[in-house]
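re the bet — no i am not wrong, look at it urself. input seq straight from the record:
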Amino acid sequence: MTAYHGVNKRQPPKPDRLPRHREITERSRIFNPGAIDAVNGTELIHIWLEHLLVLSMLQHPSPTWRWGRLVVVHPACNTDFAEACDRYRRLLVDQSTFSSMTLEELLDGSVLPTHTAAVLRERYIPR
């Protein structure tokens, strides 16, 4: 998930999907009690839904996915997403499937191919 522009916005929950979201959340056993209420209908819902996608893949009956992690990448100056990630992280008892980092950390980490890092730096890092 890449959060470059904008801010987190509250989004009303979709009641018809809540049973499936609850099932994935509870089956994962990585959330603190009350986490669903803390995210559903709040500005954290976007992170939660992306995370549920990863968790649903890990819960699939086939052995296709053995590990997965949602990594939210945001620029250092996007404090809205940084704070949201910190609040979301506090809802987890197990953080192995969730992480966040700044775009600057990603680019400075020498983990991307050189050309990819250069293109991203040119586009997103102001001089």
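see?? Residues 18-102 form one domain. told u. also Strands lie at 70-74, 98-102. so pay up
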